[in-house]
Specification:
The protein is α+β, with helices and mostly antiparallel strands and 206 residues long. It has four helices and 13 strands. It has one domain: Electron Transport, Fmn-binding Protein, Chain A (Pnp Oxidase, Chain A, Roll).
Length: 206
């Protein structure tokens, strides 16, 4: 079966891409509104892309009624946001925060999520997140006027203490249980893991 993307409607392209590019990490982005309301919204068109500088990117489309999302409005005003990662204990709240909330109702407050101050920016982070990255906007890319790619530079990291081996600079994978996005309202656990020996590369005859 084959498709030329040009022959598909945007929604059909979305369904193809999100059905096979799986699982996707989720950026649970906190941002700060003009009256001090903290917004928290999940985005699964997201990933990190390099380490020097540490850059991440997520895509925010318009709401179905054409309104700009609060996250984008807040980031464009402040140039700051926090990417919070989600694990199993936080997954239900993360999903609930994807609902439609008015700008004057903060998802963390409504869902009883604890906030903690960031170190280098004004935007708070989610206190219970396993990993949180304070970001300043690095670049914005407008896509067709209905979607914004937000690139952020990570300027400070917060890691839940029990998840990290500081000496080895390695995560304790047996303690970290991130959630991945599948499609629609479907998510996946990441505990069924496979470990391969180091790749040998091409073998040459002696």
């Amino acid at each position: 079966m084959q498709y030329d993307p040009a022959d598909l409607k945007p929604r059909e392209r979305y369904k193809v891409l999100t059905s096979f590019v799986l699982p996707r990490p989720i950026a649970w982005v906190t941002s700060l509104g003009p009256t001090g309301v903290v917004n928290a919204a999940p985005f699964s068109f997201f990933n990190v892309f390099c380490e020097d500088p540490p850059l991440c990117m997520f895509a925010a489309n318009l709401r179905p009624d054409g309104r700009i999302k609060d996250t984008v409005i807040n980031i464009r005003r402040t140039g700051e946001f926090v990417v919070n990662m989600t694990d199993e204990p936080l997954a239900q709240a993360m999903h609930e925060s994807s609902g439609d909330f008015p700008p004057d109702v903060g998802e963390p407050d409504y869902l009883n999520l604890k906030l903690a101050p960031s170190t280098k920016i004004a935007v708070p982070r989610l206190a219970d997140a396993p990993f949180a990255m304070e970001c300043r906007t690095w670049k914005e890319i407008d896509v067709n006027g209905d979607r914004l790619l937000v690139m952020g530079e990570g300027i400070h990291f917060h890691i839940r203490d029990e998840l990290w081996d500081h000496a080895a600079m390695r995560v304790h994978m047996e303690r970290y249980h991130p959630i991945g996005r599948m499609f629609a309202d479907r998510y996946c656990r990441t505990d069924d893991r496979v470990v391969f020996p180091p790749a040998e590369g091409a073998k040459t005859a002696v």
